Q: What sequence folds into this?
């Protein structure tokens, strides 16, 4: 009798175990079937995200190759020149370039409205247009006018570009320039007053095709430096929502006017980083410094 009870109990346990296995498998299969579309979707999203990141990385490398990298200062046409650009994202809309034509130094700096991929595409177009025009003319207002005309065509998104175009003649030490809504450069005087460049600002490029742009001139003395920048410097914001601002930028220039272009740029970037104190970079930062050689004394 006892043996029979034990057998029946054993059979019952075996059947209960089998039933539990069947129920567990059913639950697992059901969950898998329900979750399969979600898993596939997540996998596809991950693949898409990886593809986008790869494309952005390629775009960033292309942008770096277009924006001529400076490892050290360059010496050309009676001056030293140094520039750097740091995007807030993978790619950005800031730009700078220079070109030697007929013994003169043509240079520019600019900032495309907006951020990210769209701004970077416009930025590449502007640089290519500048290089094409700089190869054929040394007239800043003509360069700005032609770039403006091209950018204003089919500009349904109302994207504009602020830009400063200049040309330095080492024979006369004159800078002829045209400003299209860009931040005024700072003249860092070796002797005399360091101040913002006085100019008649025109509207940014790309807004209307018939905008007029004017040339202006300024004389540089030996050892003077022209500092060009984008608003990523003056509008750098710390955790208290305070701006680095124009006055702080000018004060920095006054205190460090003896520095050469690279040292000046590196020091300014460090000072801005110290000011923001770890706050996230909200805009692209670009600086170009051009300093006349003292050997012309």
A:
């Amino acid at each position: 009798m006892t043996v029979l009870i034990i057998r029946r109990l054993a059979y019952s346990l075996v059947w209960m175990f089998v039933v539990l296995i069947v129920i567990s498998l059913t639950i697992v299969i059901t969950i898998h079937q329900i979750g399969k579309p979600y898993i596939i979707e997540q996998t596809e999203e991950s693949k898409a995200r990886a593809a986008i990141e790869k494309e952005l990385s390629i775009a960033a490398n292309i942008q770096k190759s277009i924006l001529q990298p400076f490892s050290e200062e360059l010496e050309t046409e009676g001056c030293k020149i140094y520039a750097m650009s740091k995007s807030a994202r993978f790619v950005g809309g800031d730009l700078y370039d220079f070109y030697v034509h007929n013994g003169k130094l043509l240079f520019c700096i600019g900032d495309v409205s907006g951020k990210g991929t769209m701004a970077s595409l416009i930025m590449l177009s502007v640089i290519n247009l500048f290089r094409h025009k700089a190869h054929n003319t040394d007239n800043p207002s003509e360069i700005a006018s032609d770039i403006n005309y091209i950018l204003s065509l089919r500009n349904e998104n109302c994207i504009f570009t602020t830009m400063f175009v200049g040309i330095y003649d080492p024979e006369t030490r004159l800078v002829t320039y045209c400003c299209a809504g860009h931040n005024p450069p700072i003249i860092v005087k070796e002797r005399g007053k360091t101040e913002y460049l006085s100019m008649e600002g025109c509207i940014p490029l790309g807004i209307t095709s018939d905008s007029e742009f004017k040339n202006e001139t300024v004389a540089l003395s030996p050892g003077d430096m022209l500092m060009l920048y984008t608003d990523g410097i003056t509008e750098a914001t710390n955790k208290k929502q305070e701006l680095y601002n124009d006055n702080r930028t000018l004060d920095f220039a006054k205190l460090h006017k003896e520095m050469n272009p690279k040292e000046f740029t590196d020091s300014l970037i460090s000072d801005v980083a110290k000011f923001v104190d770890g706050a996230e970079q909200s805009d692209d930062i670009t600086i170009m410094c051009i300093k006349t050689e003292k050997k012309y004394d």
About this structure: The first helix runs from residue 2 to 66. The mean pLDDT is 82. The longest strand covers residues 104-112.
